[in-house]
């Protein structure tokens, strides 16, 4: 009898926590296109790969092109592309200081200048101009 009570006490808060968990994980910001973009970009890889970026709109644009050309991402065009770029640049833009909402600064590696959360060294696969 007491074992059951123990179990209930352990499980009850757990199920509450699970119900509150967002399907896009923590720190997927509110904004136009949030759900659509979350499903689309999360289809192939973790959204963490998106959250850890800080790119200008132009660089997001290049990255989407690169992903379509080399990673089989269905191309995004016209208004849809604008929606995506607006969302990405607004939430994961270049000017994110100290790690933004996406990741606390402490958890991000120091950038080339030794400053926390300013920029991650680009991986070799990212296109550069
Ligand atoms: C069809 C599959 C697919 C879709 C959809 C997709 N990606 Fe990717 N993405 C990839 C692959 C493959 C890689 C490279 C391999 C890896 O690092 O896992 C990648 C890598 C990335 C990277 C890392 C680039 C770097 O410099 O390391 C970012 C950022 C990224 N994707 C963002 C996005 C965003 C934003 C979206 C939604 C607009 C998206 N992806 C949708 C397949 C996809």
From TrEMBL:
<protein>
    <recommendedName>
        <fullName>Cytochrome c</fullName>
    </recommendedName>
</protein>
<feature type="signal peptide">
    <location>
        <begin position="1"/>
        <end position="19"/>
    </location>
</feature>
<dbReference type="InterPro" id="IPR036909">
    <property type="entry name" value="Cyt_c-like_dom_sf"/>
</dbReference>
<keyword id="KW-0732">Signal</keyword>
<feature type="region of interest" description="Disordered">
    <location>
        <begin position="96"/>
        <end position="129"/>
    </location>
</feature>
<dbReference type="GO" id="GO:0009055">
    <property type="term" value="F:electron transfer activity"/>
</dbReference>
<dbReference type="GO" id="GO:0020037">
    <property type="term" value="F:heme binding"/>
</dbReference>
